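Reviewer comment 2.1 asked that we show a complete input and output for one of the modelled complexes. We chose the 5-phosphoarabinonic acid case, as it is the one discussed in the main text.
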Amino acid sequence: MTTTLKIDISKVFDYVPERLVFSRRDEAIKALKALYDKTGKGNDFLGWVHLPSSITDNHLSELKKTAHMLQNEAEILVVTGIGGSYLGTRAVDEALSHSFQPWLKKNDFPRLLYAGQNISEDYMAELLEILEDKSYAIAVISKSGTTTEPAIAFRILREHLEKKVGKDAAAHRIVAITDAHRGALKQLADSQGYKTFVIPDDVGGRYSVLTPVGLLPLAVAGHDIDALVNGARAMEMATSPETAFENNPSALYAATRNTLYRNGKNIEILASFHHKLVWFAEWWKQLYGESEGKDNTGIFPASVNYTTDLHSMGQYVQEGMRSIFESVITVENPAKTLRIPHDEVNLDELNYISNKRIDEVNKMAELGTLLAHVDGGVPNIRISIPALTESSVGELIYFFEIACGISGYLQGINPFDQPGVEAYKKNMFALLGKPGFEELSRKLRNRL
Ligand code: PA5
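Response of the prediction step:
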């Protein structure tokens, strides 16, 4: 199994010398070994490290079987979850789907819509309007089984679906993906006879895209989950502690961003010149933000979509505060071919690029931007994949996951918990009058 992802860190060396990055070699490999040996912080949550290589054919077949069943029953699958319970699915689905999928005359597979990732009344009401005259199924996904946003959405969707098709048919179209034993969702699924899939105990939400959390909805949407997992497997092999540091893309990425961080760059912008990666960047932001934002430390993960954002954020990146570095995901080959037409009149003066493929212009925009930003004091890490395929996206997922674990250990924090997420929840519960939060409710109300 070989990998196709490449990383180029040479455009950070104007800012931090190569020897400084490579001086982190031992630390990075030690961090990687700690992930493998389970000797670092948060070692109860390392089930994702060997997840790709431990996924069995039987497991994939079981997922595909349920996916086929849902494909036969529904035009839409409503993926109901928040954070790690939906971002990976959306990242992969958007990366691999037609840009104008809602407008396609015919869809061969159910389309994915999302619920429970916000608490917007308008969003939910408008989703129900769409679902009213469509056949749909629900994948309700929550590891804890108690998260408020998806719980509210699921209560509404379940009632809607039961009214629409009847209780028994609804139960047949609902799949619950949750903890093996605990939580309200598990209890509900058992009592209602929903098909269930398990999120392993030792895999946290943001590392769960290669569990049924991501694999089931992606299979329903017609994506090749075998190829996705194979891509991740190849990257698991390529990034093991046996690989030399200079050949290990994840160790290089982690060491480079950590060196930049220690030398004053505390914002990382994930950029891409491919609009299909916008949601991939959202997944990445959760992975890195939730993993590293601890103890008042950590790189702030941001994202831009170029060239679109060169006409908005580009000014800041070029000339704003010099606390940023950029990591660019390059897609070497587009899937389709389209050339710029020749025009005799040439009023727009574009004839110098007539007959060129649009992607050639995009690539020159990318290289031009890279050099302009480096010259402007923004170091650049370039991560390239040959094309947007299941396999290369699988590589990319595991590349970023293992790099995130290494990075977190280099930073000295636990990259696998998220205690800070509880603060808003407690306040919300208190303000909503949840039993048990009376004292906090009084305190908060006095401050409002
Ligand atoms: O990464 C995480 O653990 C979180 O973002 C969770 O995925 C998110 O809070 C949703 O949690 P749950 O799946 O328990 O509903």
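Residues 81-85, 142-144, 147, 150, 204-206, 290, 418 surround 5-phosphoarabinonic acid (CB under 6 Å). We note this here for comparison with the apo prediction described in Section 3.2.
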